[in-house]
Structure formats: C-alpha cells, structure tokens
Amino acid sequence: MSKSKTFVALDVGSYKTVAVIGDLDETGKLHIIGFGETLSKGIEKGAVVNPSEAIKSIKEAVATAESNSGFRISSVVLNIGGVHIESKNEKDFISFSSSNKEIDQNDINALIEKISEKFKNDNIQILHIIPKMFVLDDDEIVYEPVGLIGSKISGEYNVITGKVNSISNIKKVVEQSGLGVMDIVVNPIASTTSVLYEEEKDLGVAIIDIGGGLSDIAVYKNGHLEAVKSIPLGGNLITKDISFRFKISKDIAENIKKQYGVASIEFVEFNEVVEVKSREDEETIKLEKYEIVETIEWRLTEMFEILRKELEKTGLYDRLNAGIVLTGGVANTPYIQHLAEKIFEKDVRIGKPKEFKAFNEKFYSPEYATVIGCLQFTASALKDKHVGSNSSEMFNFNISDTFTKFFDKIKNLF
C-alpha cells in the first residue's frame, strides 16, 4: 500500500448518531482520526420516524467529526439495522460443459447471480451475500474454489436482506444531510467484524449487540455465518421503566441508569439511597438504589429470556461452544455478564472493539463496536483492492467508477 486511505462510518442509532473517520496507513493499520456524536432524534428502533430531526442529528455528528479531524466528509459507509433485516441460507450450482474446467471469478459471480435471482422482489433488497462453503463435483468441500479444476461447482451462501422502503428512508435522510452513501453494512456484521475472534466462529458463538432500540444477533458455527436477526429490545426500555416507576423524566431516568445502574440486586446494599430531581427545576427526591437496580434487572432478565428463545430457534443453541458475546451500549452495565450467564446458561464475555488505533480510550468500549466494525469492514475491503484516495479531503466514492464497481462486489462477495 503506497498511500493512506481515509473514509467514514456513520451509525444512525436509536439512542445516538455517530460519525467516525478512519485512516488506513501504509502498513494496513486502521487509525481513528475524527469523531462526532450526538443524541439521536427522529430514529426509533432503526427506522426513520421524523426525517427533519434525523437530518439535524446526522449533520451535527458529521460537523463535529469534520471539525476535530480537518477533513471534509462527502460520503459514508452506513450502518443499518431494524427488524426488517433478515437472513436465509441458500444453495445453488453451476455445471460446465468441460469435465476439467478451471474455475474463475466469473464462474463464482454467475453462481452469486443465480442465488440473487431467488430473492428478486420489489419489496426487499439484498445487502450481503456471504459465502459459507463450496462443493466441487458433488464431492469435495472447498472454501476457495477459484483456480481449482472441476465439472460442477455448488455454493452455499447466507443472504441478508432488508425492506426496500426502510433502507430507502434511512439513505434518504443521509443524502439530504449532504452526504453520499458509498455502501451499507448491516449492524450485526459490523459488530462481528470488530468484536469476534475466528476461533469463536469456528467453535460456535452468538454475538448480541444491545443498543438503544434494538438487539442485533449474529450466529456462527464452523467459521460460517448461520443466522442474523434484529429484535426490538434495547436500553431505551430500561430508561422508560425507571421513568415510569419513579415518576421522573426520561432524561433523568437515563442519567440514573448510567450513574447508579447495575445488572443485579446481588451487588447492591438494601439501605443505599440516592438523591435525584424528579423533573428539571423540581425538588430533590430520594430513591432506594435497590429499587433502581431491581427495575433494571427485571427488564434485562426479560430481554435475555426473549433473546435466548430467538437463539434456540436457530437450532444451534446447544452447539454454541464459545458461548455468547455481549456488545453494544447496554453491555457496559456493571455485572451484566453475571446476569447473562445465569439466563443463557453459557459462558458470556463482553465484546469490545479491537485491532485499531485511536486517540481516545473510549473507542474501545462496547458501545462503539458497530461503528468501529463498519470502518474495519471497509478497511479490509480497501486493503484487498489497493484503492487510493486524496490525502487532504474525503474521497468521494460515488463519482468514481472504480469505487462503484468495487463496493458492488463487496456487497456480493463479503
């Protein structure tokens, strides 16, 4: 790699909107060089509910990232989530007229096209087609068929799709913020990229990214993605529970959750009291910390029980030998690992982003797993393709034929 490459990930979440600028240096190492975030407005559970408010949040996060980096942002890789995201395993094959055909990339592209045809629907859009394995001549299982000799190649892929209208709505508010969308990465794939280890994928693992409005799940076994799912459960529910139980504003409830919240009453003294304001400019009230934590534990327990049932539906729950990896903002809750292990009855670890350099330690927190993973997904693609960029300004993928073709391939071949 002769030049550094600079690019941006944008995560428009239910709780906050984050723009992160990454630079891929000459050695292939990813550095975080710019950052902006703001509380999200106009987004609920991954869906746009108020476009003008969502645009304001995006512009604010991007402006902050530009200000502290010195780069102008023109295009972004967009994280996307929502209950409309689904995945399905699909198989197909191609037979050749010659019994000793050398398989090339055009053959794999043709196989991918056959898989894609099965998802032709005006209401859904393919976001990723991820290879699991190939079978050569109905006999040998291979993982990189290009260059091998055969008369038939079969392939199995995990195809991730989303609803066209939902995708269009989030893209539209990004574009109306003055940005181009150079590619889309679904949230669980991004989180996986930054958090999981290859040996975990081989052994069998489920990653659960719990954000403000959604819990995104990805399940791996034998090194392959098996299932992706998004559930409308997140930390905002805990905030609402605290607000309702103690008759306080959601903003104050959110602060209480962050300042005093832990995941289990096992780690709280019964007689501990905290003082808060019930509303802005109102008198101080006293709350039992035990009751605050009790409220949090109730909701987390319910969420984990629902998530366990979703994982059991995959048929792989008993084969998750590497257990569960929790990430996302809610994973910062003290003692959440302890509670999760009780509910899931498996080993649980807290997943933090890895394998990058940053100017602030906070980027290694679980809450940034998705947006950092989006950068890493893009960085991996750029390293493979040796794509150059300008050194003083964000390069614009949308005006370059090379970039357009490149990212079309990435969506299909990741």
TrEMBL record:
<feature type="domain" description="SHS2">
    <location>
        <begin position="7"/>
        <end position="195"/>
    </location>
</feature>
<keyword id="KW-0131">Cell cycle</keyword>
<dbReference type="InterPro" id="IPR043129">
    <property type="entry name" value="ATPase_NBD"/>
</dbReference>
<dbReference type="InterPro" id="IPR003494">
    <property type="entry name" value="SHS2_FtsA"/>
</dbReference>
<dbReference type="GO" id="GO:0009898">
    <property type="term" value="C:cytoplasmic side of plasma membrane"/>
</dbReference>
<dbReference type="InterPro" id="IPR050696">
    <property type="entry name" value="FtsA/MreB"/>
</dbReference>
<keyword id="KW-0132">Cell division</keyword>
<comment type="similarity">
    <text>Belongs to the FtsA/MreB family.</text>
</comment>
<keyword id="KW-0472">Membrane</keyword>
<dbReference type="Pfam" id="PF02491">
    <property type="entry name" value="SHS2_FTSA"/>
</dbReference>
<dbReference type="GO" id="GO:0032153">
    <property type="term" value="C:cell division site"/>
</dbReference>
<comment type="function">
    <text>Cell division protein that is involved in the assembly of the Z ring. May serve as a membrane anchor for the Z ring.</text>
</comment>
<dbReference type="Pfam" id="PF14450">
    <property type="entry name" value="FtsA"/>
</dbReference>
<dbReference type="InterPro" id="IPR020823">
    <property type="entry name" value="Cell_div_FtsA"/>
</dbReference>
<dbReference type="GO" id="GO:0043093">
    <property type="term" value="P:FtsZ-dependent cytokinesis"/>
</dbReference>
<keyword id="KW-1003">Cell membrane</keyword>
<protein>
    <recommendedName>
        <fullName>Cell division protein FtsA</fullName>
    </recommendedName>
</protein>
<comment type="subunit">
    <text>Self-interacts. Interacts with FtsZ.</text>
</comment>
